[in-house]
Write a structure and sequence with these properties.
It is a single chain. The protein is α+β, with helices and mostly antiparallel strands and 183 residues long. The chain contains seven helices and seven strands, in the order ααβββββαββαααα. The N and C termini lie far apart (39 Å).
Length: 183
């Protein structure tokens, strides 16, 4: 399914947290400039459902650069999503509440079949079945974020840049987690 293929590839290419990429709107993405602004998270709160919240830390609200592969992936996915939205018709969730009662036109990147936000736990529970079905080693979904960071470090991207991209509050968080990859 194209949604899940896109989610996996996008996370490998961007290194975003689940809650961050599930909170993305198309208005946060500039495909011409190759940038994505992380402005919100999505999380499930019992009794309230799936809601949008502010990013984890001050440095979690950030703008990251994405490469041409990621831009192409998102262009293809957007076309697919537009076609799905037409198929769903009036069942598509037209507006979403993104923060403090502010309701906007629904332009979420990653959604359920009807345009509703996805609970991050859905990604977590879906992933092991995907790995097993494709005879891949059992790893956590968050490992895709670690892979992205490790590849950046292996490519000699400065740790301060990697830390900023990951949205870590302190560079020391990045060096503590990825010490084995830093030379």
């Amino acid at each position: 399914k194209i949604l899940w293929r896109t989610v996996i590839t996008f996370d490998l290419l961007s290194g975003l947290r689940r809650a961050e990429f599930l909170g993305l709107r198309w208005s946060d993405v500039d495909l011409d400039a190759g940038t994505i602004s992380i402005e919100r998270n999505v999380q499930y709160i019992p009794g309230k459902g799936t809601v949008f919240t502010t990013p984890k830390t001050k440095r979690s609200r950030r703008c990251i650069k994405i490469g041409p592969e990621c831009v192409q992936l998102l262009r293809e996915y957007r076309q697919h999503q537009k076609a799905e939205r037409v198929k769903v018709g009036s069942e598509w969730v037209r507006r979403v509440e993104i923060e403090n009662g502010k309701t906007v036109e629904n332009d979420l990147l990653f959604t359920k079949w009807n345009g509703a936000p996805i609970d991050p736990k859905t990604v977590t529970t879906w992933f092991p079945g995907f790995l097993a079905a494709h005879d891949l080693p059992a790893v956590h979904f968050h490992s895709l974020r670690h892979t992205n960071a490790s590849l950046l470090i292996a490519a000699h991207v400065p740790v301060t840049t990697v830390s900023g991209r990951l949205g870590h509050a302190k560079t020391s968080t990045t060096t503590d987690i990825y010490a084995g990859f830093i030379r």
